[in-house]
Specification:
It is built from five helices and two strands. With 165 residues, it is mainly alpha-helical.
Amino acid sequence: TIHEGGHHFGMSHPHDGYDSEFCMDFGSSGPLYFGWAGDESNTVMQYIGLTTKFSRFDKDNVYRWETAGYLNWSNNLLDDILAHPGYASVSAYVVQAESYATASLATFNSWNYVVSATYAKKAYWSMAKAATILGIPTPDAMQADLGDVNPEVPHEGDPIRFPDN
């Protein structure tokens, strides 16, 4: 149950992988079988059954995803905001967002993932405020238009967890 709950929060198995160079997800089979070595870690998301606890590794995993998601959402809004004729009226929000994003990356690089996610969320809130003032739809508002899918529940296709999907 704890393992499946981890999937509900957007967590994957340690033996699953993503290759950023080729922009592809991969499983641990064939020439990539070595990915199973990741299962020997202190996380409920592994298959070996080493722990049933929601460990520091699991919490860090969630906060890393949150950081990436909020910063991706912020970046997605930036182009539309900069191109809008009313940009000057919301430029202070963009500057504030940039400050939060910089702090997010600095704390992320210091491995303080919970603080990093907090700054990333603040960066997104600043960008979302600017977008709302300009009438630009925000990713979280667009996500709410998914019909009967609950936008509060992470799932494949959420732009915060899978921005290219």
